[in-house]
Amino acid sequence: EVQKHSVHTLVFRSLKRTHDMFVADNAKPIPLDEERQVPQSVSYHHKVKMAVKLRTEYGSVLHMPTLKENLREKGGPNTGDPYGHKQYSGNQGQELEYLITGTHPYPPGPGVALTADTKVQRMPSESAAQSLAVALPASQSRLDANRTAAGVGDIYRHAGIPERSQPPGMSVALVEAGGNKNSALMAKKAPTMPKPQWHPPWKLYRVISGHLGWVRCIAVEPGNQWFVTGSADRTIKIWDLASGKLKLSLTGHISTVRGVIVSARSPYLFSCGEDKQVKCWDLEYNKVIRHYHGHLSAVYGLDLHPTIDVLVTCSRDSTARIWDIRTKASVHTLSGHTNAVATVKCQAAEPQIITGSHDTTIRLWDLVAGKTRVTLTNHKKSVRAVVLHPRHYTFASGSPDNIKQWKFPDGNFIQNLSGHNAIINTLAVNSDGVLVSGADNGTMHLWDWRTGYNFQRVHAAVQPGSLDSESGIFACVFDQSESRLLTAEADKTIKVYKEDETATEETHPVSWKPEIIKRKRF
To answer: Which SMART domains match (predicted)?
Structure first.
C-alpha cells in the first residue's frame, strides 16, 4: 500500500534531494594541510600538486637551457620560485643547467627569463600582449635570454607535436621591439573564397526540332561536323552541327534510347535503351552490326574507353558491364551497387571507370580486377550525373542535394556547389572551367569550376505548343571546340547556346563577395 504524504512533505523532500545533489562541491581545491608544516610555509600537498602541474604543463620544455649567469644574478635556484620546486635536469648528478622560470608570475614569451621587467601578473588580452611586447624595455636580462630563447616551433618540435597543432585561427608573429624579436599571438584571417575567374554569359541562339518524344541523350562526333541524339520516340537522329539540319534517322530500338556515343577510334556509333539492348552501328552502312546481350533491365548510359577497345554500360539491374567491342564478350560485370546505376564514365588513368547510382553512392572501379576501389557515400540522394574535368585530375557528381567535386585517384572531397535545388540530370564541363548543370525542371546553372561560384542561371522557354511542365533538361554536352553548348530537352527540342561575344567584365561584372568558406564534408 502506497503511503500518502502531504504536498508540503513532498516538496520538502524534493528540495532536500536537490540540496544533497549540489552540496558536495567537487571543484573545490583540497584544503591545505596545516598540521604538517614545511619550509617556506607551503603545505606538503600543495607542493606535490604544483610539482605534478609543472610536469604536466611544462614537461615539453623542461630541458630548455637558461644562462647560468641568470641563476647567479638571482642568487640561487629558489629565488624566483615561490613554491620551492626542485629544478629538473636531464641528469640529476650533473651540474644544474636547466631552469624553468615563471609559473605564477609568467614571462611574456617562451624562454624569456622572469625578471621584474618581463614578468606578467595577469592574462593579457590579444592587443595588450602586442603592446606589451613593444613597450617592454630591452633590459640586459632580456638580451641575455634571447640568446638562448627557443621559438614556439622549437617547443612544438621537442614535444613531438607538429606546428600545425597550434590553436586554430592563431598564428605566431614576430614583433620587433628594441632590436629584439618577441613572440606575440596575432589573429589569422579566416580563409575566404578566392575571386572567381570571369566567364562571359551564355545565350540561346538556336532551337532544333524534329524528334517526336523527349530527347534523352546527345553526343558530338570527334570531327565536330555533326552530333547525334537519342529520343523517347525510339529513333536516333544525326544533325549537322553548323546548320542544325537533320542528316539521318536510325531506327532499330523498340523503346526509349537512353545513351549514344560516337567512337573516335572507328566509324562506329553505340547506343543503348530501355529495351535492354546495346547496339553498335556502322556509320558507313548506317546499319547495326553488333548487339551486346547481358543486361537484365533498361540500360541507362554508356561510355567508351579512350585508349582500349572496350565499351562500358550501366543499367537499372544495378550493374555496369564491360564489353569487348570486337568480340561482343562481357569482360566484367561490375556489381556492388544496390540500386539502378544511372551514369558511367571512363578515363585512361586510374580509376578507369566511375559510376553513379540511385543508391546515392559513387564507385571508382579497378578495370583489371573488375572490383570496387573506392565507394563515396557523401551524397544523400540519387547520383544521376558524373563528369570528368578534361584537364584536371578531378571530377564532379550531381545529385538533388548538392553538386560535389572530388579529386582522383582516391575520391578525396574538394567542395560542394550548392544552390541548384532540383533533380540534376546532367553535368558538362569545358577546359575553360565552366561547369554546366541541367535539371529536371528546365533550369540550367553555370559555375566556375575552381571556386564553385554560380555565375549564370538559365531557364529557357519551352517551344510553342508545349506545356510549361515539359520544361526539363535530360542531357547537355559541349562541342569539340567548346564554343557551343547543346542541351537535350523534354519539349522534344535540342537547344544550342553560345558565349555572348559582346559581353565584357565591365558590362557583366562578377557579383561576388569574399565570403568565409564554409565547406561541409557531407
So the answer is: WD40 (SM00320)
